[in-house]
From TrEMBL:
Keyword Transmembrane applies: yes
Domain of life: Bacteria
Subcellular location: Membrane
Name this protein carries in UniProt: Cytochrome c biogenesis protein ResC
Annotated source species: Geomonas silvestris
One GO term describing the cellular component: plasma membrane
Length: 239
């Protein structure tokens, strides 16, 4: 099944300039994840290989509505950026072995799967927003900034729901809604960052460039929350 994930990488890069081909790459990844899910009897959300593949697919899935937005009809280079990011994380997933074990009892709940899936959808939307912010800085089209705000707001909504479902999962798993782990602390930092970021939109056009830059910084914070904490810190959330 891994050939589906491998095949999606060049298709994403080639499909960067053709929306239907971009969609084909996404279908390849969805087929890969569906095959993994059927084999495992659960969502493939354990281990770096599966989570990176899921993240890549989330980027493609969350980017697709924006690629069909009227404001991006002339922004073919932005298609390439979205395809390149999705291809990058798919490529990073390839060296890691897939974990085919059943879920440990502490993770064997729909609340865990909902929590993780929503978090990845949010990370993906923050990434889409960062690219839109970068495009605004290069081209100065305010419609790109409006799309960045839309992506960040939708991602923030997903992330808020992820935190709620994560708290419920934590209660069933450990008897408490909150543990003072590095992952939870960085999750809170990310949520507070985007809470402030979205409010800055009310500052008016004088803050446009700073808003775009902060959207890029926000995605870096999201990447550290996802990857950095697992790599550099010990946490119950580490993959």
């Amino acid at each position: 099944m891994k050939w589906l994930l491998i095949a999606s990488i060049p298709v994403y890069l080639f499909g960067a300039f053709r929306r239907p081909i971009f969609a084909v790459a996404l279908v390849l990844q969805l087929a890969y994840l569906a095959g993994r899910g059927i084999t495992l009897g659960r969502l493939p959300l354990i281990g770096p290989g599966d989570t990176l593949a899921f993240f890549s697919c989330s980027i493609g899935l969350m980017a697709l509505p924006f690629l069909y937005a009227r404001e991006l009809d002339q922004e073919r280079d932005l298609y390439w950026g979205l395809g390149a990011i999705a291809a990058l994380f798919a490529g990073l997933a390839l060296p890691f072995p897939t974990l085919n074990m059943p879920l440990p009892p502490v993770l064997d709940t729909y609340w865990f799967e909902l929590h993780v899936a929503l978090a990845f959808f949010a990370y993906a939307l923050f990434g889409v927003g960062a690219l839109l912010g970068g495009a605004f800085l290069l081209k100065g089209r305010r419609s790109l900034l409006d799309l960045q705000y839309r992506a960040a707001l939708t991602g923030y909504s997903f992330f808020s729901l992820s935190m709620v479902s994560g708290g419920i999962w934590g209660y069933y798993a450990w008897g408490t809604y909150w543990l003072w782990t590095p992952k939870e602390l960085w999750t809170s930092i990310l949520w507070l960052f985007y809470s402030l970021f979205l409010h800055l939109r009310a500052k008016g056009t004088s803050w446009d460039k700073r808003f775009a830059w902060l959207g890029i910084v926000g995605f870096l914070v999201a990447l550290f929350t996802y990857l950095g904490v697992s790599i550099f810190m010990r946490s119950s959330h580490s993959f």
